[in-house]
Amino acid sequence: MKKTGARIYTFLIFLFLYAPILVLIVFSFNGSETASRTVWGGFSLRWYQKLFEDRLILEALRNTLFIAAVSAAASTVLGTMAAIGINSLKRLPRRIMMNITNFPMVNPEIVTGVSLMLLFVSAVRLFGGRSLGMGSLVAAHITFCLPYVILSVLPKLRQLDPNLYEAAQDLGCPPIKAFFKVVLPEIMPGIVTGMIMAFTLSIDDFVISYFTSGTTQTLPIYIYSMTRKRISPEINALSTVLFAVIMVLLIVINVRSFQDRGGRQKAEHPEIVQK
């Protein structure tokens, strides 16, 4: 009885979460000539065609992909370096640094967005330069992506045997070469997972981007601006594309995590593999 109730509850939760998205995806293929969002007019790709013919949408897409790529790359490098530094600290300093790292993740996004906007505006007034735009967007995205990269890399560093790095140095390998030959291959799955997560979060972000974008348009901001006017069926197609990209990236992250967990279990229990 309890299992049946739990299954029903889980089904209702998933229905509540994904039924609206399913309706949106279905009506993105609506061929209604009246541009109605509720009357089905047959299957058609017309709204996808109009979507990719829209210059403003393509510009927002280019901005989104550029910001996501740059912020993911920068936050991956900086986050990996920070994770290595945190892992080398003693217990109390490490705990303090972890609390500092976790704070941006639990902090409301609107607070982070407003504070970053004030920081960038104050910096422009003090030092000059351009106001809010592409640069502030990239800096803001790097800021909120960093903690996720750090938390992805740290578990790999904790699983790493420190004797391997020391043994490589004892054999005459320089510290930098020992890092790239011994440490980096071991923590690479965590680095890749953190980079994909940072890329996904950057594409999907709206609140922080809204406060730090200035006149630069990203896809989430463009979708919001479309909803403030008369909603065109193109927004269904655009939202479907964005949802599909995010879903594919999340599937890649989960598959990599599953493969990594399976590989770790095989390494810890080789007798299971032999059987």
What can you see in these coordinates?
This protein has 275 residues and is mainly α. The protein has one domain (53-262): Orthogonal Bundle (MetI-like fold). It is 80% helix and 0% strand. It contains twelve helices and no strands. Helix 3 (55-87) packs parallel to helix 6 (134-159) and helix 10 (219-228) packs antiparallel against helix 11. The longest helix has 35 residues, at 234-268. The protein is globular, with a radius of gyration of 23 Å. The chain starts with a helix and ends with a helix.
Q: How would you summarize the topology of this molecule?
A:
Layout: H1 2-27, H2 46-51, H3 55-87, H4 91-106, H5 109-127, H6 134-159, H7 162-170, H8 175-204, H9 207-212, H10 219-228, H11 234-268, H12 270-274
User: What is the count of structural domains?
Assistant: 1
Task: Give me the CATH superfamily.
Answer: MetI-like
Low-pLDDT windows of residues: none
Total of DSSP H or I helical runs spanning 4+ residues: 12
CATH topology: MetI-like fold
Report the β-strand fraction as a percent range: under 5%
Shape annotation: globular
Distance between the termini: 38 Å
Largest sheet: none
SS-based structural class?
mainly alpha
Calculate Rg over CA atoms: 23 Å
